[in-house]
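W.,

You were right to be curious about this one. When I first looked at the sequence I had no strong expectations either way, so I just let the prediction run and decided to look at it fresh. Below is the sequence, 72 residues in total, followed by the output.
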Amino acid sequence: MENTNQSSGNKTNIEVESSKLKMPINSNMDEANKTAANIFNTQGEISFLKHIFTDQETGRQMSYAEMRYRYG
């Protein structure tokens, strides 16, 4: 089957610089989420991901399920 959308004129490339993205922080957020959002806004996506997958009390790497339990 032939793909009729192969010409470069039909492609849309959207690039978003992560440095321009900001995570909103509001008063209804718990402290863990406020801290994580602040790290995203000030240190970037890589630091944010490292933070949310690290247990802040022990330094242990957490599973995806543990991260979701803490941060929603």
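Here's what jumped out at me. The two ends are 43 Å apart (CA to CA). And, maybe more interesting for your project: The mean pLDDT is 83.

Coffee later to discuss?

I.
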